Amino acid sequence: MNIDELKNIWNEDQSEKIPEINMEDKNRIHLPLEKIRKNMRMEFWSTLGIFVFAFALIAVCEAPFKFKFYISILVASMIFVTVFFFDKFFKLYRNMTDMNLNTFEGLKDLLHQLELNKQYYLSFYVAFAPFLVCELLIVLEFIPRQLPLSDTKIAVTLISALVVGIVLLFVIGKWWFNKFYGQYIKKIESLFLQLKNN
Predict the structure, then answer these.
(1) Residues 6+ positions from 153 with CB-CB distance below 8 Å
(2) For 149-183, what is each residue's pLDDT tens digit?
(3) How far apart are CA 10 and CA 195, in angstroms?
(4) For residue range 2-20, what is the model confidence (pLDDT) as tens digits?
(5) SS3 category, 103
(6) What residues contact 129, with CB distance under 8 A and at least 6 apart?
(7) Burial of 16 by CB count in 10 Å (0-12 exposed, 13-18 middle, 19+ buried)?
């Protein structure tokens, strides 16, 4: 067997291992990917707007210095956590344009990254639980009342608000992810399964 025959056998073997995705299917994959990218851009700008609004609100509200200072530190800490998660988020954003979606392996890698980012996304919402606790403590401490709250009322208020808040964070986070990203990821998964079975 000569070198050319070996090359031909190798190329045939490789083409069986890594099947190509045709142009029509690539276009079907790019549509949900573009929707995901558009929603990522919208989420970035809206999050930035929320933080700018929060600092503006702190600046104009008439409240004691300690209250404004604590809230400012809390919002700055939230920005730090948000930057950490958005860094992961933008790596996926950049990778979606650079990925080789000509093969099933490239598509499989994309699905893996999308699943990983889903976990990051839900972790992002759960990471706000400590901030919720701090906000509740600051509100309970600084809101003026005619009669001070008893220790029991403070404990019940804090624990019940915390339980409701964490459940809401998780539910809203899941709903938000499914509405803006999950439905498009499911489309890509379904296309992958269709292509795999053909």
Answers:
(1) none
(2) 788 988 898 899 889 988 888 888 889 999 999 99
(3) 24
(4) 566 655 665 555 444 445 6
(5) strand
(6) 162, 165, 166, 169
(7) exposed
Q: Under a CB-based contact definition with an 8 Å cutoff, are residues 47 and 89 in contact?
A: no
Residue pair 157/140 in contact by the 8 Å Cβ criterion: yes
CB 36 within 8 A of CB 53: no
* Residues in Cβ contact with 189 at an 8 Å cutoff, skipping those fewer than 6 apart: 111
| Cα 94 from chain centre | 15
Instruction: Give the tokens for residue 67.
Output: 């209250």
Maximum CA extent, the chain: 96
- For the chain, give every domain's residue range: 22-197
Quickly list DSSP for 122-154: HHHHHTTHHHHHHHHHHHHHHS--SSPPPHHHH
The size of the chain, in residues, is 198
Would you tell me how many other CB atoms lie within 10 Å of the CB of residue 193?
A: 10
Using DSSP's 3-state secondary structure scheme, residue 20 falls into strand
Dist. CA 191–CA 198, nearest whole Å:
11
pTM of the model as a whole: 0.74
Q: Which two tokens stand for residue 77?
A: 């800490």
Residue where the block lists tokens 């990051």: 120
